[in-house]
Amino acid sequence: MNIESICREFGISGEIVACDVIKSGNINDTFKVTFRDAGGDSCYIVQQINTHVFKDPVSMMQNISLVTGHIADKLGDASERMVLSFLKAKSGESCFFDDEGKCWRSYRFIDDSITFDLCDDAEILEQAGFAFGNFQTMLGDFEASKLFETIPDFHDTEKRMNTLFSHVEADPLGRAADAASEIEFFRENFERAVCLTRMQKDGKLPLRVTHNDTKCNNVLFDIRTKKALAVIDLDTVMPGLALHDYGDAVRFSANTAAEDEPDISRIRLDNNKFRAFTKGFLSAAGAVLTENEKEKLIDSVIVIAMELAGRFLDDYLTGDCYFKTDYPGHNLVRTRAQIALAKDIIARYDELDAIIKTLL
Ligand code: ADP
Ligand code: GN1
Ligand code: MG
Fold it and tell me: I need a labelling partner for 119 at 20 to 30 A (CA). Which of 128, 216, 272, 333 fits?
């Protein structure tokens, strides 16, 4: 089905005047569609949900409905550009299955907003940190048991590592030899990677309602003031660890390079970006963090960089079926980039931990 017909299913009227592909995400297919009528132009985000990754999109949309409703109630009149809102399909459901079985949803485009894939501006990064920290605190009183687990064991790093090792053993495509030194790195640093999973299982870290995919491009900013507006991409909002959100955001936003930079000599954790994001995050969420959480902030960045490296490598070994790739070997390049970041943080652990201590 074409995009215009999909939009009609969500009750959108007017003449379609533009349809742009938004390429930043690795999972879903996203389009920005503009319609014109006598009242002017209106924009919508239309997404094809990846049902290989999100197997129960109806329950996922129910989560998003509950979470956005909770935040909108808290924000009251201020909520208009501060929270995602989706359109209902004619069936009354919040997603629509086309005749090929593809699943679609539509969000109102938040006007005059912008996202940043890479960002060097400390003020914007501090805003992003605040937005993700604030997202967690706004959901602090949300009843977690209402949420469906959209991807079970999403941040169970130990399970992810063990899956990786079993695929290294099976080596279905004969690709493991391409990653011999990377596999060695996972074996040598296994304990570091699984430290949060172990603490969680031992009851040493509290389960909270978390976002679980805190890339900087999942925060919308006002195009003029550059203030954070809304946290978006709510597919993975589930019970989780505050540290996973912090660690994932830092590994993405504070990297000196892109998360798939092929030249690993360019990859480092940038102290200024790291400080700015951490400052914003702690100013919103620091007060609710436990001592154990505060202790492990820097470790969480290593954990998530290693977990994601392992996920990219697992995808490479099993045929690149999960993450979208732009070229053969892209997932191996991504693996190496995340390992390079983890190594930099491990090498500068005390220096980076000291920066966090100045902000707590
Ligand atoms: P993905 O899961 O593929 O990352 P997102 O939901 O994050 O998809 O959307 C991809 C991009 O589309 C975002 O980074 C942002 O630039 C833009 N976007 C998504 N939703 C909206 C919205 N409601 N208003 C404005 N821009 C949006
Ligand atoms: C995926 O959809 P996107 O690009 O926001 C992935 C994240 C990874 C990220 C790495 C559901 O996020 O876990 O950290 O790619 N999302 C899912 O870029 O697996
Ligand atoms: Mg996104």
Answer: 333
SS (H, E, C) 136-165: HHHCCCCCHHHCCCCCCCCCCHHHHHHHHH
Answer for the pair 192, 303: CB distance below 8 angstroms, yes or no.
yes
Q: What is the mean pLDDT of the chain?
A: 97
In this structure, the strands spanning 15-22 and 40-49 are: unpaired
Q: Are strands 40-49 and 29-37 parallel, antiparallel or unpaired?
A: antiparallel
Ligand number nearest CA of 84 is 1
For residue 89, the CA-to-ligand 3 centroid distance in Å is 22
Give the number of the atom of ligand 1 that is nearest the alpha carbon of residue 109.
24
SS3 257: coil
Name the closest ligand to CA 248.
2
| Nearest one of 186, 297, 177 to 246, comparing CA atoms | 297
Which residue from 24, 116, 150 has its CB within 8 A of the most atoms of ligand 1, so it is best to mutate? 24
Residue 125 has pLDDT above 90, yes or no: yes
Residue 84 CA: nearest ligand 1 atom is 23
DSSP 194: T
In a 3-state reduction of DSSP, which class is residue 73? helix
**pLDDT category of residue 1 using cuts at 50, 70 and 90:** confident
**Predicted confidence (pLDDT) at residue 77 exceeds the cutoff of 90:** no
121 pLDDT more than 90: yes
Is 90 exceeded by the pLDDT of residue 79?
no
The predicted model scores a pTM of 0.97
Which residues sit with their C-beta closer than 6 Å to ligand 1? Answer: 22, 24-25, 27-28, 30, 45, 84, 107, 109-110, 113, 115, 217-218, 220, 232-233
Assess whether pLDDT exceeds 90 at residue 269.
yes
308 CA distance to ligand 2 middle (Å): 9
> Which domains are present in the chain?
3-111 (3.30.200.20), 122-359 (3.90.1200.10)
